[in-house]
Amino acid sequence: MSATPLPLKICIGRFGHTNAIRDGIIPIEGVKPEFIDVNPQIAAYRRMVRSVEFDVCEIAPSTYMIAREHGAPFKALPIFVSRNFHHSGFVYRPDVGIKQPKDLEGMNAGVRAYSVTTGIWTRGVLQNEYGIDISKITWWVDDEEHVTTLKLPPYVKHVPEGKSLVSMMAAGELQAGFTGPAGLGRTGAPKEGWAAGAAKPAETNYTAFFKDSRKLEAEWFKRTGIYPFHGTIVVKDSVLKEHPWVAKSLFKAYSEAKQAYFKNLPPPDKMDTKEKLLAELGTIVGDPLPYGIKANLPSIEALMKYVRQQGMLTRDYQVSDFFVDPEV
Questions:
Q1: What are the extents of the domains in the chain?
Q2: Are residues 186 and 165 in contact, defined by beta-carbon separation less than 8 angstroms?
Q3: What's the CA gap between 15 and 23, in Å, rounded?
Q4: 83, CA 20 to 30 Å: which among 117, 162, 248, 281?
Q5: What is the pTM of this model?
Q6: Angstrom distance (rounded) from CA 122 to CA 150
Q7: Alpha-carbon 13 to chain mean position
Q8: Could you read off the pLDDT of 7-47 as tens digits, one per residue?
């Protein structure tokens, strides 16, 4: 580590457990950060994948894996800044006659983009837990993939001009779809200034695909150890090659920021929505934001498997192909 701090352009989202880094309260040892705001952070994913614009960037893990296979010159640290399970957030029209999971085969389902991490996690559950052949479902998308060189499977189709997932679902052209940012919650490309509440659909009577999803998720986690993650931190290969200590510095800063955040959480009745979600997840998994490869190995291996199964990786990989272990 040099006596002179290393200047790095860093683009990471704001969370309660990362704000201390963003605000300079917890330093990144040996680094002089230039924090760059991109709103929403999803727009930064695209800029990082296509132009490698930042030295350090928060990016969706599935997008990262695909980009890495396509030659992206950056590598991930096992720091996952957002988590949730994904048995929820997938709905269907009540008039389509789904009585069991396999009934989804032969239908049309909507997802913002095929490589969206939420979609991959849920399709992984559908395929591996319920025996659904996802290639027998037509997956309709209304946005482009972050990785432009990704060749999509033949069962993925782009919505026609002038339509969206929202309009197709309302018209019955789609029988199922993801809610929120992963699908029916908004339309249009993720560009800066894209409002979080844009293109909200009207109230619907769509039915949750999995009933009592939290119970199913808790049972799944207990059996498999898989706890879905999002928001991976990646670092340019050139930085890691010339300054390998950066991985440990980032990992240490994120870990300290997380510890400080949890130490100062308000009581349950004063928590905001995100804090309540983390507390709820904690009742299932213990630490709701585990960092490190060892603590996340079943989850990392599961996502690698799902991305491969769903036709977005061309071969099997080792965890070390995608992640630097800063704890070694």
A1: 6-85+226-322, 90-209
A2: no
A3: 11
A4: 248
A5: 0.94
A6: 20
A7: 13
A8: 999 999 999 999 999 999 999 999 999 999 998 898 899 99
